[in-house]
Amino acid sequence: MHTSSLQQNILAELDHELITTRKILERVPFENADYQPHPKSMKLVQLASHVVNLLAFKTLFVQHDSRDFLDKNAPKPGPTPTSKDELLARFDEYSATLRKALSDSDDEKLTHPFKLHAGDQVFMERPKGAALRIMGLNHSIHHRGQLSVYLRLLDIPVPAMYGPSADEQGWG
Q1: Would you give the DSSP letter of residue 149?
Q2: CA distance from start to end of the chain
Q3: Pure H helices in 30-76
Q4: Is 50 annotated as contributing to ligand binding?
Q5: Is the distance from CB of 116 to CB of 125 less than 8 angstroms?
Q6: Has 139 been labeled as part of a binding site?
Q7: What top-level branch of life does the organism fall under (predicted)?
Q8: Any known ligand binding at 38?
Q9: 6-72+79-169 CATH
Q10: Whole-structure pTM value
Q11: Predicted confidence pLDDT, tens digits, the chain (172 residues)
């Protein structure tokens, strides 16, 4: 029986999700950047940018032991992209950085704890591998799903994610 390492499993999942995420981002219509389906929802460009910036957040989980939101010297996300080319270039850059950080890691390092906090208030403390899955991959997939709904509401064909989409099947 073949067993894979934790690192290899996360890399395989990451590779799959990056392909799907890029397909969604390629369809973000910047002419509708301020589109907001509800007053409590993020604007389209904010949501797309958040999906991309989460890649840098995942890299942080791999390379560091904690993130204090009160630390004024902590890395901040870049400015909101002003074009699809800029959004995709940042996605490609952040994806490559994350993939390299994860490739340079190993199972033992991924069992080390990671703490997400604001001063004394702890939001999450888990092994790095679990943090990557829960606050990294799952979090990104959640927001990518929201982004696919924005596309649907703007009548932009939604690409396949885990099987053919209604648009690719010609439904409706």
Answers
A1: H
A2: 45
A3: 44-63
A4: yes
A5: yes
A6: yes
A7: Bacteria
A8: no
A9: 1.20.120.450
A10: 0.90
A11: 455 799 999 999 999 999 999 999 999 999 999 999 999 999 999 999 999 999 988 898 899 999 998 998 887 777 899 999 999 999 999 999 999 999 999 999 999 999 999 999 999 999 999 999 988 899 999 999 999 999 999 999 999 888 888 887 766 5
